[in-house]
Amino acid sequence: MLTKKAKYGLKAMVHLAGVRPGETALVADIAAANQIPKKFLDAILGELRNAGFVHSKKGKGGGYMLARPPADIGVGNIVRALDGPLAPIQCASKTVYRRCDDCVDENRCAVRLMMVRARDAIADVLDKTSLEQMRELSLEDKAARLVVGT
Amino acid sequence: MLTKKAKYGLKAMVHLAGVRPGETALVADIAAANQIPKKFLDAILGELRNAGFVHSKKGKGGGYMLARPPADIGVGNIVRALDGPLAPIQCASKTVYRRCDDCVDENRCAVRLMMVRARDAIADVLDKTSLEQMRELSLEDKAARLVVGT
DNA sequence: ACTTTAATCTATAAATATTGTAAACTTTGT
DNA sequence: ACAAAGTTTACAATATTTATAGATTAAAGT
């Protein structure tokens, strides 16, 4: 389950992917545009900064900007930074693997082997999509709808 | 994230898939064999019964058994019964869809469109695997290891 | 220098979900 | 009647999520 933190964080990243390169966006503006509690977003952007996804500038004319072009940022890694591993269960994680305390023999644990497959499926989607592509999802969809007229 | 409830429930279902057809298994035995708190498992099996996945019999000689052959039970539906929708976010669910309160225009929400893809990927794995196949995962793996000698 | 702007840090609180435990109750077989 | 085993209800201890408040720091403009 994606927490609101990750949801808000992703929305903020998409927002930042939409500002002209070199320019910054204010937390207050991002919050207002996406219906996110401002103080909560403060904390989220702080984490994203610590994780190296965004840069910030204080004072007048300050704000946030992406640290790298959106094409070079994987959606999966944004989610990992905010919500932790993609795997449904820790013992199925490839990035932050941890053994189960219950579980006699890992290699014969059907639940784990099943969830490894689920993890791979999730990672295959989220790690192969860049922030730029994710942003385009909405634009493409909008365009398609306008053409078809639905 | 899969909760312990779902994890325990899946382990119990795999356990039940392993008993001879027509026979029952005791909660106490399932709990002991899988390192699950007995009282917690009581509650979990109760939910699985209410959801129609297992049948139970009270009194001496009682216990639990699968309601249908394991080949006819989808892993995704077991998870849904215990942890709710597979989708990482409610507005991306196909079985229990619910609109986001924040979110001006759903069809232009990049987060939702991204998570719909994630949901589809997860469902593609979990819904196409039966309880029987899930159980075989562990057996196959075990056999492979014994042959290779690792 | 002073003021305003805007991010940053620390602390904390409210709400919710998870993970269990305890005790009383019901059904079934012997 | 008795014992075995699932059922129901209630509750409690954590842990996590979702924020909010206030003080602080840094930068820019005047």
Automatic annotation (TrEMBL), chains A, B:
InterPro entries: Tscrpt_reg_Rrf2, WH-like_DNA-bd_sf, WH_DNA-bd_sf. Coiled coil: none annotated. SUPFAM superfamilies: Winged helix' DNA-binding domain (SSF46785). Gene3D superfamilies: Winged helix-like DNA-binding domain superfamily/Winged helix DNA-binding domain. It comes from the Bacteria. Keywords: DNA-binding. This is Rrf2 family transcriptional regulator. The lineage of its organism: Bacteria, Pseudomonadati, Pseudomonadota, Alphaproteobacteria, Hyphomicrobiales.
